[in-house]
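Run log // design_07
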């Protein structure tokens, strides 16, 4: 079981200055009816990536509200995570021919996790495809099992989806980040926006002095324009596309590029992508490629705050929490119109959407030339996040779902 990191001891009352006090009271009122009820969250990595990021805060907040949550992470060998990464890409529509052996490896690893973990909670939430087959570990007449899908399933690889779908159909419900991401299923489906915690080290206010200190530690000049993409080194995040866009901008405007990311234990491709990015960057001293360790929340916070513009040039995306984080920091964002990004970046209102390297470069130049607009987009983005994408809203949705499930049976 994961011990959630709590670098800052945050309690619900600390959110009052950010939200309305009434919202916190509403959460407490909802949670009262679930006091002492057990919740188990299961995913495939404890660090790196958006799901770990959310669970890290969801668990302590549920606990403070009187529920009894726990978080388990499945384990597996390199072969398992290579297959699940291929499945992940294939579900996002990347061409892939699954072999019978892939499915056997997937099921063998699921079985090992079934034996290792205990499933006795009243509400079990399984996150994403990697642990989806654990539904077969559900004890007879047990509690409620929900599948939380964080990825866009609208155009999946047929072979992979045909294999996974029967498992999904055994759940009591499925949660998707957007209605467009879902599939025809015989079970109820609910929309759950992902979220950020405004009080975590990743997002809380930090002193200008700290921001400057972090940026300078990485050799970045805080006085010059900084373009930043924070992402795992993953081809679908298109770091090389970001580099190409920067190279176009650089012909006209002085700027530095920061490509900062780390790896996730369930993503074996990171090293190869990082090497490709380094090679593509050559020896441009204004390109800063930062391979960050998992414990870099404050550094990422500072890098986002120091940025003139934040880019998210994903080719495919689940939701894109890095966009949420940047908007919360009132940053102008230039991002691809894929996955959950358009729910966050409303074109010309909370940021600018793009569809290509050239388009990304164009919008960056447009914002550099229009700082007042850039500022307004950032401020509107901040309000949009406050309204829809904060952890407290996510907790409220889970509480409502659990109450609904418990009432149904
Ligand atoms: N992240 C991080 N370290 C990194 C790269 C990313 O902590 O080196 C965080 C990032 O700040 C965000 C999450 O991981 O909170 C990424 O979530 P997102 O939804 O953007 O993408 P995913 O990695 O889940 O595809």
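design_07 sequence
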């Amino acid at each position: 079981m994961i011990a959630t990191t709590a670098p800052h001891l945050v309690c619900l009352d600390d959110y009052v200055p950010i939200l309305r006090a009434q919202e916190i009271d509403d959460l407490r009122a909802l949670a009262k009816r679930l006091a002492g009820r057990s919740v188990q969250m299961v995913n495939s990595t404890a660090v790196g990536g958006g799901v770990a990021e959310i669970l890290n805060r969801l668990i302590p907040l549920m606990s403070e509200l009187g529920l009894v949550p726990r978080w388990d992470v499945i384990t597996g060998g390199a072969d398992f995570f290579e297959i699940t990464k291929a499945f992940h890409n294939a579900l996002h529509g990347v061409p892939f021919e699954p072999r019978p052996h892939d499915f056997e490896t997937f099921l063998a690893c699921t079985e090992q996790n079934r034996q290792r973990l205990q499933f006795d909670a009243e509400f079990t939430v399984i996150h994403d495809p990697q642990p989806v087959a654990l539904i077969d570990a559900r004890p007879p007449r047990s509690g409620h099992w929900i599948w939380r899908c964080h990825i866009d399933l609208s155009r999946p690889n047929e072979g992979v989806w045909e294999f996974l779908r029967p498992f999904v159909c055994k759940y009591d419900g499925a949660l998707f980040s957007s209605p467009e991401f879902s599939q025809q299923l015989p079970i109820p489906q609910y929309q759950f926006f992902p979220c950020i915690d405004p009080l975590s080290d990743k997002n809380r206010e930090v002193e200008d002095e700290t921001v400057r200190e972090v940026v300078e530690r990485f050799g970045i000049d805080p006085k010059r324009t900084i373009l930043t993409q924070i992402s795992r080194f993953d081809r679908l995040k298109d770091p090389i596309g970001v580099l190409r866009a920067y190279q176009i901008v650089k012909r006209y405007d002085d700027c530095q590029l920061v490509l900062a990311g780390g790896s996730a234990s369930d993503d074996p491709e990171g090293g190869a992508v990082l090497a490709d990015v380094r090679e593509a960057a050559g020896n441009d001293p204004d390109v800063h490629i930062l391979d960050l360790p998992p414990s870099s929340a404050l550094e990422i916070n500072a890098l986002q705050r120091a940025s003139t513009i934040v880019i998210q040039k994903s080719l495919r995306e689940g939701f894109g929490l890095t966009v949420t984080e940047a908007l919360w920091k009132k940053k102008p964002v230039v991002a691809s119109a894929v996955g959950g990004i358009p729910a966050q970046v409303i074109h010309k209102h909370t940021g600018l959407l793009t569809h290509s390297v050239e388009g990304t470069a164009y919008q960056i130049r447009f914002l550099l030339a229009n700082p007042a607009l850039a500022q307004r987009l950032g401020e509107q983005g901040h309000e949009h996040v406050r309204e829809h994408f904060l952890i407290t809203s996510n907790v409220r949705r889970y509480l409502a779902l659990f109450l609904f499930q418990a009432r149904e049976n």
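Residues 49-50, 53, 202, 230-232, 261-262, 292, 296, 300, 318-322, 325 surround uridine-5'-diphosphate (CB under 6 Å).
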